[in-house]
Write a structure and sequence with these properties.
Blueprint lengths: L7 H8 L46 E5 L3 H13 L2 E5 L6 H14 L10 E3 L10 E6 L5 H14 L5 E4 L6 H4 L9 E6 L8 E6 L5 H13 L3 E5 L8 H17 L5 H15 L5 H8 L1 H11 L11 H8 L16 H21 L8 H13 L1
Parallel strand pairs: 1-2, 1-4, 2-3, 4-5, 5-6, 7-8
Antiparallel strand pairs: 6-7
């Protein structure tokens, strides 16, 4: 399903929103933007005093996904897989049949029974059954003004017990929810493409977020079969994207400097240290290898790592030339339609194989666990 960006004009027309005011290697001593000014750490002890009970169970939750592009469609799969009743708000009604097919097909591929209440698609926010909603996941275009306008509308429509979340990949929820009443129920809920195959989801606390709600959202996503992590400071990029971009900055810098080709950079990650990440993250892997070895290597390597505050020359050049990747037909490689289809199939197949390898370490969706238990009891 192609990802379709929706302009602020389309969102305001459909939802009656209020009008809006309109070189890579540097010295190792190059100034870094400090993160000490970020939002304070949110301690989340198990015995934390609950300001209110945010507990949710997927099978009794009506979830609304706003935006039916690639990410929104896959988030709908995740929520339906957990047993939620799901409504997708997608302004373009002609996309609704494809959305329904996508969710049904992906649930079938995962071996999950179709939900008792089929996916519901509506074109307008006002058409959702708001009194019963317990969770909203915003999946619209990655522009702050658009998200702020939408959240202003959501804060009026959603009942007080509903959690309002944004799937933004980099915009802090503190900015998205700035100035809204009831900001305590606003969180980042960041999935990774393709959301129904990549297990991780980040639960991000903003400056006003209720920590108890974050814990409830964490448990809720685990019951949907995801692997949630709590991000206790509302930093740009959160947790995983900060790690991912640290690697990408060095990768593109190495290409800029002629140290390696794009193909060799990819091979070094996939078949070298990246291969080990299936079994252990960077911290656990260092325990395997020895912290003294890592510390010594870090002391030698860190001073020469790229510390640029701007994207690599090669990356900017590709973007300026319109070589945006598969969606434009060319990026670092050429992507004619047939080759793109083959590559996407290969990519999805390997991700599914990775899920199979990790199956024993992944939480089972609550609905699947319940189905298995009922099956065992009946045999």
């Amino acid at each position: 399903m192609a990802d379709q960006s929706i302009s602020i004009g389309e969102w305001t027309n459909q939802f009656s929103l209020p009008k809006l005011k309109k070189n890579c290697w540097e010295s190792p001593r190059a100034p870094r933007k400090p993160i000490a000014s970020a939002q304070p750490f949110h301690a989340l002890p198990d015995d934390a005093e609950l300001t209110r009970d945010w507990t949710m169970l997927p099978e009794s939750t009506h979830a609304v996904v706003v935006g039916g592009g690639t990410m929104g469609a896959d988030v709908a799969v995740v929520l339906a897989r957990g047993g939620c009743r799901v409504t997708v708000v997608e302004p373009h009604a002609d996309r609704h049949p494809a959305l329904r097919r996508h969710v049904a097909d992906e649930l079938a591929a995962a071996g999950v029974a179709q939900p008792p209440v089929p996916l519901h698609c509506v074109a307008r926010l006002d058409d959702a059954e708001w009194p019963a909603v317990g969770l909203v996941v915003e999946c619209i275009t990655e522009r702050l003004a658009d998200k702020q306008a939408l959240f202003a509308q959501l804060s009026r429509l959603a009942p007080p017990q509903a959690l309002l979340t944004s799937n933004s990949s980099g915009l802090p929820i503190s900015q998205i929810s700035a100035g809204l009443p009831g900001r305590a129920r606003c969180y980042g809920l960041h999935f990774f493409m393709p959301a129904h195959l990549v297990p991780l989801v980040e639960v991000v606390l903003g400056e006003a977020s209720d920590p108890a709600g974050a814990r409830a959202l964490h448990d809720f996503m685990r019951a949907c079969g995801s692997v949630p992590v709590l991000v206790r400071k509302d930093l740009p990029g959160f947790l995983a994207n900060r790690l991912q971009h640290a690697l990408a900055r060095e990768a593109f810098a190495l290409i800029d400097q002629g140290v390696a080709t794009a193909e060799d950079v990819d091979a070094a990650v996939r078949f070298g240290f990246g291969f080990r990440f299936l079994a252990a993250g960077p911290v656990l892997q260092r325990d395997h290898a020895g912290l003294d070895v890592h510390c010594a290597a870090a002391a030698a390597i860190y001073p020469s790592l790229c510390n640029s505050a701007t994207p690599a020359t090669v990356l900017q050049a590709h973007v300026a030339a319109g070589r945006l990747g598969m969606k434009s037909g060319a990026g670092f490689a050429e992507w004619p339609p047939a080759q793109k289809q083959v590559e996407r199939a290969r990519y999805a197949q390997l991700l599914r194989a990775g899920l199979d390898l990790l199956q024993s370490e992944l939480p089972a969706p609550r609905s699947a666990a319940d189905d298995n238990q009922k099956h065992e009891e009946s045999t």
